[in-house]
Amino acid sequence: MVIERLIQRHQLTFFLKVFNRFTDKPIGYLGNVSDGGLMLISQLPMLVDANFEFRIKLPGADGEVQFIDLTARCLWCREDLTPHYYDSGFILYQPPAEYSGLISALQRYFSFQPLQASA
After folding, report:
1. Per-domain residue ranges for the chain?
2. In terms of Cα–Cα distance, which of 103, 51, 100 is closest to 75?
3. pTM of the model
């Protein structure tokens, strides 16, 4: 059975760390994001069908750190092409507005925008 992805992904490998919200220990890195989910790249396999509490830390404009807290369920986990790493897919439960803002910011940052012609 072939299932095609209907939501566009945005690749982020090894840029944004994901932490355990309660222990503040790093879990892995965002691999890609979509409106309702994310892929995590980690050095340990994630437990499928388990819920996780994630925190993404973003640098703020004023030097403060902005937190995006997420509750997610792991839907799948498999070995990455890179040895000793695992890719895991998560569905997000009620992601906050800040997560949508992160997706928009990443789209702008990683997109090629045409140059504006000067008059």
Report:
1. 10-99
2. 51
3. 0.77
The fold of 10-99 is: Thrombin, subunit H (2.40.10)
CB 58 within 8 A of CB 68: yes
Q: Helix/strand/coil (H, E, C) string of the chain?
A: CCCCCCCCCEECCCCCEEEECCCCCEEEEEEEEECCEEEEEECCCCCCCCEEEEEEEEECCCCCEEEEEEEEEEEEEEECCCCCCEEEEEEEECCCHHHHHHHHHHHHHHCCCCCCCCC
Q: What is the pLDDT of residues 77-104, one digit of tens each?
A: 999 998 999 999 999 999 988 888 888 7
